[in-house]
Amino acid sequence: MWSPEREAEVPTGGDPAGLLPPEWEDDEERMSFLFSAFKRSREVNSTDWDSKMGFWAPLVLSHSRRQGVVRLRLRDLQEAFQRKGSVPLGLATVLQDLLRRGELQRESDFMASVDSSWISWGVGVFLLKPLKWTLSNVLGDNKVPAEEVLVAVGLLKEKAEEVYRLYQNSPLSSHPVVALSELSTLCANCCPDERTFYLVLLQLQKEKRVTVLEQNGEKIVKFARGPHAKVSPVNDVDVGVYQLMQSEQLLSRKVESLSQEAERCKEEARRACRAGKKQLALRSLKAKQRTEKRIEALHAKLDTVQGILDRIYASQTDQMVFNAYQAGVGALKLSMKDVTVEKAESLVDQIQELCDTQDEVSQTLAGGVTNGLDFDSEELEKELDVLLQDTTKEPLDLPDNPHEMLYTNSVPNPRVPDAELEAELEKLSLSEGGLIPSSKSPKRQLEPTL
């Protein structure tokens, strides 16, 4: 465990193989230029200045991200970027430029930007800076000392978000107040050292997502309820719930310890009985019974504490549901602000009227144009039936001999009745010879003359 009496060292180590730029190993001329110092001013040669800065600034930030450390020192970076026994001579200028752009921040300046309530317990956490750093800042010297700690702002914000997410997904989130020691254990993989852990908490404090309070010599952390909510100050209810949680843990540990003691007394009684030591076995059994009675009493207390905590958690859930209902009612009122039953009925009537109008228009268009004549469909049907009946009753007048329909011209040949023909024949016979026609004489069909 870190203590104010000793300062944790910033993690060091060379850059992993394969993560450096490709020219690092092969391009000697290029690397010799990059390892040289910057000119005193950018105005001397802006091209060379921008080329070096464009190489080293992203490399420093990516190195910090790969190592997972938010705290950087010039000395550690010089060791990490050694090449064939040479160190980059312009890293101090690169760090100054990153400080100017806000991508890095002095650790002391970052601490000073946090709310005073956090600093009240955290002053002793970080050792005071050496006097020469303070004097250099007062005198306006912007040089970065080799031992001064700088904070990678972007990576620190990412780690703060990760810590908050870890808490939200852990059983500790059942209540917003948690012990600092428990939170530190939860974030052991995310924060490689305790100073990084404290910086992350400072960042969360700066974002108004946590607040820290010291209670009975122990530091407790209160988280905001939602990812976009602001944390509220620690109140008496939070302290009371935290004390109940601590009591529950203490009783649970005590019950577990007494259970092990009862089991040990039972084993001692068994061994004494096997050895024939009856009195010793009885004493062990009596000790076991006393221990079990203590366990029962502790279980009763533990059940009481857990029941109170369950009611508190249920009330918090009820409060969240109540707030959600309130928000829902407010949103519903806002959305139904201009909607009334009368307006809804009027709208439905208008829709029905438009639908009826559309049906009438469709029927009118389907009737077609009648040119001003109005025909009764029933009368037309009756007349058609009469015509059909007449057609079926009258036989078709077809000729017996197809040759009779052949004429020498287009004038039709009128049909003469047989009685008229016989009368005319009889007249001709009398006029020619006075012959009396016999009833038995054969009849001769006369061809009509045209």
Short précis:
Residues 248-275 form a coiled coil. 59% of the residues lie in helices and 6% in strands. The protein is mostly helical.
Keywords:
single chain; 450 residues; mainly alpha; three-stranded antiparallel β-sheet; 16 helices; 59% helix; extended; disordered N terminus; disordered C terminus
Estimate the mean pLDDT confidence. Answer: 77
What class would the helix/strand composition place it in? mainly alpha
Order of helices and strands: HHHEHHEHHHEHEHHEEHHHHH
Uncertain regions spanning at least 5 consecutive residues? 1-18, 118-141, 402-412, 434-450
Side-by-side strand order of the widest sheet: 1-3-2
Biggest sheet descriptor: 3 strands, antiparallel
Residues in β-strands, percent: 5-15%
Q: Categorize the overall geometry.
A: extended
GO biological process, one term: protein localization to chromatin
Main location: cytoplasm
Domain CHMP7 winged helix: 156-224
GO cellular component, one term: cytosol
Characterise the protein shown here.
Residues 156-224 form the CHMP7 winged helix domain. It is found in: Cytoplasm; Nucleus envelope. Belongs to the SNF7 family. InterPro entries: CHMP7_WHD, Snf7_fam. Keywords: Coiled coil, Cytoplasm, Nucleus, Protein transport, Transport. This protein has 450 residues and is mostly helical. Helix content is 59%, strand content 6%. The chain has 16 helices and six strands. It has helices spanning 23-26, 28-35, 46-67, 74-80, 91-101, 107-112, 116-122, 131-138, 153-168, 180-186, 194-206, 236-274, 278-335, 341-367, 377-393, 418-433, and strands spanning 71-73, 104-106, 149-152, 177-179, 210-215, 218-223. The strands form two sheets. It has a three-stranded antiparallel sheet with strand order 1-3-2. Helix 9 packs across helix 11 (194-206) and helix 12 packs antiparallel against helix 13. It is extended, with a radius of gyration of 56 Å. Mean pLDDT is 77; it is low at 1-18, 118-141, 402-412 and 434-450.
